[in-house]
Amino acid sequence: MHFEFRPLDSLPRLAWCAHLRRGREAVEVRHGPWVETAPEWFVEGAWAGPFGGGGVVEAVHLAGTAGRVEPGQVVFCSPHNLCDRLQSIRVGDDLYVSNSLVFLLRITDDEPDPGYPYYTADRLLQQQAGIRHPDKQLRTARGRRALLHDHCNLAIRPDLSMRRLEKSAIPAPVDYADYVGQLDRIVGAVRANAADPTRRHRRYRPVVMISRGYDSPALAVLMKGHGAREAVTVTDCIADDGTAIGQRLGYEVTGFERLGFQSLRDAPEAEFHATPPGADVVMAVCEEQLVGALLVTGRAYGPLHDAARRAPPDLSLGDVGAITGSMMSEFRLRVGFFQFTPYVLANRHPEALHRMSVAPEMKPWSVGGAYDRPILRRIVEEAGIPHEWFGQRKQASGFHFMRRPNDMSAAGAADFAAYLRTLPPISRRRRWMHRSFVLLRHLRIDGIRQRLCAALGLPPPRRLLVYPLTMVELEMGFAFHWGYARIRSRYDAALGS
After folding, report:
1. Chunked in runs of 10, what are the mean pLDDT values of the chain (497 residues)?
2. d(Cα 182, Cα 156) in Å, to the nearest integer?
3. Domain boundaries, the chain
4. In angstroms, rounded to a whole number, what is the distance separating the alpha carbons of residues 108 and 96?
5. What's the pTM value of the predicted model, to 2 decimals?
6. Domain 2-168, CATH number (from 1.20.120, 3.60.20, 3.40.1000, 3.30.910)
């Protein structure tokens, strides 16, 4: 098998879509102008290894997506994190794989099912399921299934048979020094790869998100040792403003307002809702600084370091926070940056991390209570940051969940309302069903099940669909449809190529 590349300058900078036809050796890849290509591989991302060697498939960490031709097959790589993913759709004897769900639907002449308002609920449950439940899919208007592939590699043969290959993983850390050492080596390797001078289109510089929590300050400490100088923080939430921490570490800190996007024009929420449920829209105001950035965040993986848990976290039972960072895909591909979440290295070894967190040697850095992450506290305090400056209370300021149109910008709410008027009215039956789900939520039926299983010594139950269905007004269930409709034209150039 071999690649046939079709570069298109009008596509989003980092977007790509591969087309495989049964029995054909050629794999056509249409891609944006910043995707790096070589005869046997392509990548939009940075990984822990030399840039020019094509070793992206075996890497123990990849921030971004890639593909490589191997004897008898082609392998596509999703990131190690759960912020981005690969998507695929089969249409007869054709198979399409892309790092953009919108690109995938557009090139297969498909769209979200106009009669299905529960994509947000589906994505919440899928993201919370984590890496232990690989079977994730979304329905389409043509009755197809868009398969979502996260934290894996996909091996595809000429007959279109597909195998999921698990990602390479680092060994389980044995103690604090071993864990921090592994993190530091990965951070340094990915940082060097992103800035490699042999990149043809762009060298990527690190930009660190920083707050007054645990996760981002610890990463800021590690990244500082590898030349990072830029940081961004939310400034309109005083309790989470990481400016002082960043400046103490030597960063040039740029502040932004959490709801600053509401003053932007042209409905900024649309491209974030194209990866439902759109709550990462707060990052829209950082667009200028994120061009060509390796964005370093601790999103979604901080709870792995909690010492307050009685047992290691079950990665199949996440919470709503697990979706943070996962709704920037279309924004990221257009602007041109990678999401780098080093803590994902620990998600294969939660037992080892929990054992370290509660070990006697970590007690000097344990503060007790529900928000207690001694491993991260030790990293930050040993870098000279005062104890009381961080890790006091979980704020989650870099996240804005839009439960109703009033949570949008004025331009976004008006455009969304106009789009809703083009749809058939919501039936009384569907509204009645939604109100019933809301009632069940108020009865806390999911919590009752959790407590009952705990009392009987049974494994925790999977979350009910009731929970995410009631997090938004019913009309907001069509925000994904709206996002797709508003940005699909950016992929039109690929249709005739």
Report:
1. 96 98 96 97 96 87 96 95 91 97 97 88 74 81 94 95 89 92 95 96 96 93 96 87 96 93 91 85 94 90 74 48 75 97 78 89 92 94 95 73 86 94 81 68 61 70 53 80 96 85
2. 32
3. 2-168, 176-389
4. 8
5. 0.90
6. 3.60.20
